[in-house]
Amino acid sequence: xxxxxxxxxxxxxxxxxxxxxxRDFRQRYAGSILGWLWGVIHPxxxxxxYTFLFRHALGARLPQGEATDNYPLFLMAGxxxxxxxxxxxxxxxxxxxxxxxxxxxxxxxxxxxPAAILLSAGAVHVLSVAALVAVAAALGHPPGPRIxxxxxxxxxxxxxxxxxxxxxxxLQVYLRDTAQILSVLLVAGFWATPVFLPxxxxxxxxxxxxxLNPLRPAILGYRAAxxxxxxxxxxxxxxxxLAGLLAMAVGWLFFRRAKRGFVDIL
Amino acid sequence: xxxIAFNSVSKSYPAYSRPLDRLRELVRPGQRQRKAEIPALxxxxxxxxxxxxxxxxxANGSGKSTTLQLAAGILAPTRGSVAVRGRVAALLELGxxxxxxxxxxxxxxxxxxxxxxxxxxxxxxxxxxxxxxxxGQFVDRPVKSYSSGMLVRLAFAVAIHVDPEVLLVDxxxxxxxxxxxxxxxxxxxxxxxxxxxxxxxxxxxxxVQALGTRALWLDRGRIAAQGPPNKVxxxxxxxxxxxxxxxxSAPAPRPSPVSSTAAxxxxxxxxxxxxxxxTRRAEITGISVFDDSGHPARSLFxxxxxxxxxxxxxxxxxxxxxxxxxxxxxxxxxxxxTNTAREGVRLGxxxxxxxxxxxxxxxxxxxxxxxxxxxxxxxxxxxxxxxxCDWIDDAVALPMERGASEVYGYLHLPCRxxxxxx
Lengths: 266, 422
Fold this sequence. Notes:
Distance between the termini of chain A: 33 Å
Strand order of the largest sheet of chain B: 5-6-7-3-8-9
Distance between the termini of chain B: 57 Å
Oligomer: heterodimer
Number of strands of chain B: 20
Largest sheet of chain B: 6 strands, mixed
């Protein structure tokens, strides 16, 4: 009897996580004929547009020493990890009030909601990455052994997203401006991350921003994996993992504590 | 074994000037940011054993909902301890915990998961839940499009099908139609026979007395009384009435001198239908109330003769018709009622299409001023065993005028006083 209860709670939480994630994933493509195929089509169309825009219209060229000289591929390889991070964090910010009825009237493990958002965004992300790998192969970047770097880049990126997601989800309940502040910060964060611009363009004080940005190693890892480019250093990947673990720990502890007040405020 | 045990439980809600102060206090518990503490419950102790049905009664704001939320584990007590054993299903307020954008099916699955059911277990109980809730094709629409009745039906259906050991119900039975209420009540009886512990909040003293094995009256966060439902409900009503009598805000309208409208031999109007049920083998076609001079009554007068006229029509053959009515007071309590069988009048069998009008001449006792309603019924059978053909809740409502002398309590007993000097 004594351990019966927590065990059942954990099972309930897992069941709930699965249900919420599955529903969220289905909901994205609910009613559409192509369904989850949109997860593949969307990045491909984006890639086509960027190719036209940057290569043919603007004639953009990447400097020597990057993973590829194909700018659209370079861009997409960096954009996909940014998007999964961005979506998880920004959607987490408003998720608790969406579930306010459940929070107030049942013993609801609200920490599963940001996790479900991550899982659902992650599923779309995996589809997009698969599509990009295929296109890169067709454009002369066949996947090599470095594709293995995807896993050690994706996992800490997910942890970082979830940790931040928990943090902003809990904070938003108390401070309604959180989501607004966050959307501004995410725009700034986007430009502080080498997605659009190659690293060589960050000079002076911006170089420091780049070094401090925990997302940078993840972007490097993705480019290395998908375009078979230069590998990020062990120290860089280590920082990413450290940041991921730290974000998870802080986010989790903060959420657990803040959760006590949810019923009263919502 | 006590399934629910509250041990000196107090709960107060801290008040903050803004939510951020609350967060500060959570993050740094040493520094108090709260402005005040609003007490909701003070030193509450009670237990409910397996198979017991405990009703919580009390005015709004007396702490009933807080008690349920504590029992459900949604709130933590400020002081004291709350212990609940076994699988808990809770129906707190309307619609339990439903996500407005999710469909009925998705919400049911979600609730089932929260109650600890696996996906496979849910699939096995879902057909029963769906059948019990009776929401048709709405199951696959977002619950924000549901009526309050549908919400409560679905929530109740899920809660009783997850095989709970403890069921917490907050006023859920107040909505929903009569049939559903009846089915819920049957289900509650069934759960009770399976030794499920039920804790429920109700404003309906009829429910409290019908369902409760024990009642607990909360008054401003304290236990005012607990014990047998009849006793506690009576004391509660008496105190409510005492409070109300001091309230001059609802004066009864004076009767206007009505010019005579010759009393119809048959009543052909039903002024109001709150709820109607029965087999409809016979139907009530009209009900009217007349005063002692035979005019349609605009109000009732204590101590005077009134006539309640009920007309019925048989749709199919009715062998042993019984016509009667129930008088309810402003709280919805069945106050007094009678019928032809009870008064010793045997009505002959009615062929299909036959009509019948019954006049009940009643000497109204000295009753307290308030609104009373008449609920007419026609049944087939005897006093011991009958089948309701048609029942209309609160078909006529009339104010009771204040009599010449004060009525203490509900009614003044006809009384002679004799004094002897011995």
